[in-house]
Amino acid sequence: MLQNIRVVLVNTSHPGNIGGAARAMKNMGLSRLVLVDPIDFPSHEADARASGASDILQAAQVVATLEEALVGCNLVLGTSARDRRIPWPLLDPRECGITACEQALEGADVALVFGREYAGLTNEELQRCQYHVHIPSDPAFSSLNLAAAVQVLVYEVRMAWLAAQNQPTKVAKLETTAMLNTQLVTADELESFYTHLQQALEEVGFLDPQNPRHLMSRLRRLYGRNNISRAEMNILRGILTETLKAARGEHHKQGKSDV
Ligand code: SAH
Q1: Is 52 found in the same domain as 156?
Q2: Which atom of ligand 1 is nearest to 117's Cα?
Q3: CA nearest 233: which of 185, 162, 174, 177?
Q4: Both 73 and 158 in a single domain?
Q5: Which residues form the tRNA/rRNA methyltransferase SpoU type domain (predicted)?
Q6: How many domains does the chain have?
Q7: What's the pLDDT at 185?
Q8: 32 has which bridge partners?
Q9: Do 136 and 188 fall into the same domain?
């Protein structure tokens, strides 16, 4: 589906930006790059900036006009660093990602069109696009580096694509992986920790059993909001054990910090 979305770079001056755009695309799972009349391509600089994405550069289609680049496209989204005078349907990058994805999912061919480093897209080129996309940058310094602008848009395409597949986002995946790796403590493990903690605090004289105030409930609140893992719990239990030994004068180990 992402293969239906092509990135079109118009009249790019710096080959490094072409390489940077290719890398951004590959990172986000896109592969169709179309170059309209590039100033310097192929080039070593483009390959260097593409890093591991030189396959995208090799497969890039080089054409003479924007018209040729847009052959077969059902939806054309043109980017602009500035608000143009002509009123046009304007999307932000998120809306662009969602729209591009929805159309591509239905089998449409979609183009994301980017302009020249120094002059952007001409009004004529912008009028070939159904929608304009503006990254809401600071109006006092609105123009992003070309490859950076490509990165923002293809990232949003990916996020929309992930959402469309009802896949968890990267953050959610990382959380799941982290939980599987670390295994959170259970309520009963937490209870025996509190018993241990209370015992240690009493023995070192921090908690007065005659006048406990709300110390233990405050500590429960503190530890309870931390999603403690089993490994972390082992560290805490180790600290309590050593603290108790020290308080009882049994301490003879040094530097036991490799828990
Ligand atoms: N001086 C040019 C700047 C072009 S920057 C101008 O005013 O148009 C090169 C390309 O990067 C732009 O044509 C566009 O494709 C993209 N780009 C840079 N900043 C952008 C922004 N804030 N929103 C959308 N696209 C942007």
Answers
A1: yes
A2: 9
A3: 185
A4: yes
A5: 5-155
A6: 2
A7: 60
A8: 6
A9: no
Among 258, 255, 235, 220, smallest CA distance to 182 is for 235
Provide the pairing of β-strand 5-10 with 131-133.
unpaired
Judged against a pLDDT cut of 80, whether residue 168 lies above it is answered with no
Tens digits of residue pLDDT in 45-64: 999 999 999 999 999 999 99
167's tokens: 């896949």
Best residue among 8, 80, 96 to mutate for probing ligand 1, ranked by most atoms within 8 Å of CB = 80
Shared domain check, 160 and 197: no
Candidate from 90, 144, 145, 152 with most ligand 1 atoms within 8 A of CB, to mutate: 144
Written in H, E and C, the secondary structure of the chain is CHHHEEEEEECCCCHHHHHHHHHHHHHCCCCEEEEECCCCCCCHHHHHHHHHHHHHHHCCEEECCHHHHCCCCCEEEEECCCCCCCCCCEECHHHHHHHHHHHHHCCCCEEEEECECCCECCHHHHCCCCEEECCCCCHHHCCCCHHHHHHHHHHHHHHHHHHHCCCCCHHHHHHHHHHHHHCECCHHHHHHHHHHHHHHHHHCCCCCCCCCCCHHHHHHHHHHCCCCEHHHHHHHHHHHHHHHHHHCCCCCCCCCCCC
Task: State pLDDT tens for residues 70-82.
Answer: 988 888 999 999 8
Question: CB neighbours of 98 closer than 8 A, spacing ≥ 6?
Answer: 156, 160
